[in-house]
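G., the chain you wanted modeled:
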Amino acid sequence: MRGGFVFGPAQKPHHSKYSHTRYGNQTGSAVIVFQKNLLFDLTDKACFLHHVLVFHGDADQIVPVENARNLLESMQPPKHGIIQKNGDHPMSSPVHQSEFEARTMAWFKQIFDRSGTA
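Predicted structure as tokens:
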């Protein structure tokens, strides 16, 4: 396993290069830490969210692209979704990273211009 970050309640991120990740007073595999602490469902809360920009890759092997589509559909406007063709979970493509930067800046500019605070 490559190194990763694990976040917990009132904790700073801990980086691990090893096959086991330390989390608080618990040591275990990163998968167990992920399952216990980072799996959550926003479906029932999505209808309250607005001013949301969602980027997702259609080749994401960690989070299904349908999750992004379903959440976006449930959210209130203004909202916008961008599904990157052949996009993976870490957005490893420099082209996708550039698109993310440009489209995120355009989104914020549009939202701030609309609200009169730009």
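The CA atoms of residues 3 and 16 lie 5 Å apart.

Shout if anything looks off.
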